[in-house]
User: Fold this.
Amino acid sequence: MLAVGAIGPPQPVRGIEKVNVVTTTSIGEKGAQRALLAADAATLGPGRRRSKRWRRYAGWLFALPALLFYGIFELHPIISAVNYSFYKWDGISAVKKWVGLSNYVAALTQPQQLSSLVHAFVFIIFFTVLPVTFGLIVASVMRTVKPGPYGTVTRTLVFLPQILPGAAAGVAWNWMYSKDGFVNTVLHWVGLGSLARGWVGSFTFALPAVGFVGTWLSTGLCSVLLMAGIGSINPSLYEAAKVDGAGIWHQFRQVTLPGLRQQIGVCVTITVIAALSSFDVVYLMTQGGPGYSTVVPGVEVYNLAFNDYQIGSACALAVVLAVIVIAVVAPLQRFFRGTDNG
Amino acid sequence: MGRQFRTKGPRYALLGGIALYSVIPVLSMFSAALMPQNVIPEGLNFPLHPQWHNFVAAWSLANMTTLLKSSVLLVLGVVPIAVLVSTLAAYAIVVLDIPLGRLFYFVLLLTLALPFEIVVIPLYFQDQSMGLLNSRWGLILPLIGLNMPFAVFWMRSYFVNMPPELHEAGSVDGASSLQMFRRIHLPLAQPAIASLALLMFLSTWNQFLLPLVLMANPNEWTLAGALQTFQNKYGTNEVLLCAGAVELMAPTILVYLVLQRHFVKALIQGAVKG
Assistant:
């Protein structure tokens, strides 16, 4: 039904085809002999075995560049962040003062930092729950529409926000929400002009307004992923359900939802990570304001470090955020992966 | 059949609606960008006399030529090195079965989901002490490192699915690991590498937080990062701001429309693997 291609890695399939070509053309008939030799080699004396072992160690030369890049620019910074988080330090002076866990206490009690963490969870509604719901609706409808240009164009457009930088989405939506922007214009059109306001400047509406940009950004990915998934559900399952007299809702509950378990899991995992670690959109649209009504951990970490010069506090909050991400994502993975270990 | 016909209208309307919802913010900006500069633009209202020269004005104000150059240099610095280094590592872990390779991979996986927030502050001080702060390399090298978990994960899942006989055949032949990598594995891995490169291009091109922290000079920021400066400077001039933002988005949108199929495929694979 979809031109997207089957879900999952298609490369191996292609790989296997090509491999066969290689073995039959360039290696030729000797291939079989060599395979036999390989089997022999495995049972040969210690000399061979030693060379094989040496080969395994020498293989680290191939992995060394990756280890260096990763060690220096990811692992080391992570360890440093944990280390900084136990100190009070302004980032400039030579002295760091050991303060134990007090930065962590601040991260969980100081109102601005705590509300950033709360907002991160609120964002899950906007980044995850709404897009997955929309995605399920779009995919279910798309399934019943004949493939053709209409479907292709819809898919292309729906996917578009996914490739834009979050910062660009921020600018676009700031304009949508502004006094003369699209949202207010539409409200005037439909006679609800009294509701019009500067959305991102409002203490009450700024958080949902900014969160909804996340909905806009994630809906495309969820839709396309779920469309691809729904395309690989065996159509006879739907036929069987229809024969049993299942209506649209029951078909959805009994066939679509179970069939999309893994894809929904993927959508949820990716968007939850995006929600918890959001930065671009919020920083560009409100920088956390008004007040701290839209502050999220990413913005708060940035502000603490580069505006307030509280490196320790910033790192403690970042560590708390990282722990939260892992604590939320790991069970999600387990839940949605279910029995199949893919 | 009759029932199907009746329900067809609403279904198409729903799909059309969601497509519209996806593009309206971009269209709304585009229409605002074409308004005369002394006018306060309105929601979505294509002007009768589109002021195309706004784009020329915004181009020079946003320093687009320099920005494009910096963004391209950044992508060229990050993507080829990261792809090569991660492919070599995945090859070593899977095919050469290096000792402790599994442990290395496990550590990479553990950090796969970690947000950049946790590394960005230490990276600032690290760049500072290495004398890399505000230099191109001070941004390129960390981005290569931060790409490693996903890239190795991606290439590993490719190598894992390759038939193992392929390697054994060559090793009896006396071919060195490097020769086998170059002659057999690298050519075969090309489709996987192409998708990985596309994904990395996108994430590097759209990178916001790292350039914001590690670069003092806005001209060396990514296009995404430059939006921030541009908004701060011209935020009151809605027309110019929209024109500039449209220009900053245009390269990605154009690349997307041309390579649409590949983008969707790569992102879906990336999602499923991640």
